[in-house]
Structures are given as structure tokens and as C-alpha cells.
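Not sure how to ask, but would you mind making up any protein sequence you like and the C-alpha cells describing how it folds?
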Amino acid sequence: MHIRYLLFFLAFMVSGWLPAIARDNTIKLTGFVMDSNKRAIELVNVFEQNTQQGTASDQSGYYELELPWQDTLILYYSCLSYQAAVRIVPVEVNQLVLNVTMTTSSKTLDEAVVTGQQRRTGSLEKVDISDIRLLPDPTGGSIEALLVTFAGVSSNNELSSQYSVRGGNYDENLVYVNGMEVYRPLLIRSGQQEGLSFVNPQMTDEVKFSAGGFEAMYGDKMASVLDIRYKKPEEFEGSAALSLLGANVFLGQASKNGKFRQIHGMRYKTNAYLLGTLDTEAEYRPSFLDYQTYMTYSLAPKWELSFLGNFSQNNTI
């Protein structure tokens, strides 16, 4: 009987010691993280080096971390916009309260100088004529078909090279070729087919366009201005193209001394194949032929003679 009481007493004592031993094997760390103005800092990372365990502070700056027992804790506190803090804490009890104050971190950046370069000689925008090859244009690859893609420019007839700017009339658009104003020589009436455009894209070297706000040197029309410069070849060059809607040929040549330069372009277009796909049958076979030449002769570094010739034949029957 005495042995039974003794065993019962030993079991009771051991059951009371085990929680105390288990509690002594862990450390509970709590505290608050604040700034220099005693305001709570949220989302501060708290990390213990030896155990590789960590946590983060809540909205009130409170954090709680349970760690295995060790003699010394090495704690790291880090947060964006604050200087990191390190605390080395010797452990004597299994419950520690550690409040940390973090100071703000600021860094002065070096001076940044931003420079930009833009080559602009006026209010006109340069047009990339290489995009003409990508346009499904039934007019034969005209520059006017490319202008329709600009803001404020529209056209009511895809068989016409006429265009209007901001709802203006078709005859309010200025066209200059090599500094000379070119008047639309054919039909002005809206939506009526007038054949090939005057400007030959194969002969152009630079195209500029403005849908308003251009210089007074171009004239008093208020809609737009199209400024075109024809090529001045440095050596012999040429190109040719053929399609079901027509053909075009271009040749350019310069003299040996470079004083005389000439370019020639011929275009032919017919809409018979295109109109033949319509449901309405008719004997309507329009055809258009255009030949242009541009020749220059340099008399002096600042003096030059130039000739621009154009022949066109339009059959709209």
C-alpha cells in the first residue's frame, strides 16, 4: 500500500514538472515598433538570426515571436523607408518584452539632367512614303491615300485622290512640288474620279504634310499643305512595277560632274479589272497615263536651273 502511494506521489510531481520544463525550453518575445515620434510602424520584418524565424508587426506596431530557448538572441528589424536596427539580447527568462524605435532613412539622389533633341524646321510633319507599299490603294499607290490615315484627314471615295481636312472643301488643300504650287488640274467636284494623282511617289525624295498651323509662306488657304521634294539622283537608278491595275517605271541619272541631274517617271492605271468585279455590267473602261520629268542643272553653289514637266492622258469612257 505504501508503495502505491509513493508511485502516485511521484507521478503527480512529474506531471507538474513537465509543463514547466516545456515552458523553459521556449522563449516568447513580444514588443512594439515605433518611429521617433512614437507612432506605430506597420509591416516591420522581425528576424532572429540563429533560428531563422521571423514575423511582422501589425497596424499597432505590435509583434510576437516564439523561439526555442537559447542564451542570446540576435534580432534584426527592417522596413522600407527606415534604417535597419539590430538588437543583441541576452536571455535570462522565457518571456521577453522588447520595444524598438526605428529612424527614417533618406537618400539624396544625384542631379539628373535630361536633354532631348528634335529636328524640326517648321510646322510640317515628315511623311514616311515607304508605308505606301503596305496600303491597299486602288488609286495606284498615291501619297494622298497615305494622308487619309492622318488625324483630321478624310476621303469619301477610294477611287479618288481627293481628300478633305477637318471637313473643309477638296480645293482648300495646298500642294507644292519643289517649292512650286501645283493646282489640281482636273476635277474638283467631291467624289468624282479624276484619275492619277499629280504626285508620282516613285520620284519623291521627301514629303511633308501639315493639317493646319503652317507657315504663311505657303499661302492663304486654311485647310492643309503638302510639300513634296523630288529626287536629285547621285548616280543611275531605276525601278519598275507591274500589276493588274497598271504599271509604273522610274529612271534617274546624274552627270559625271554632278551638275546635271534628271529623273523620269511614267505611270499607267486602268480600273477595268476592278470595276469588272461589280454586279452591274457596263462598258466602262477608264484608263489613265501620266509622264513626268524633273531636270536640274547647277550653275553655281547657290544657283540652279530646274524644269518640271508633266503630261497626262485620261480616258474616263
In short: Residues 16-23, 185-192 have pLDDT under 50 and may be disordered. Helices lie at 2-24, 143-147, 272-275.
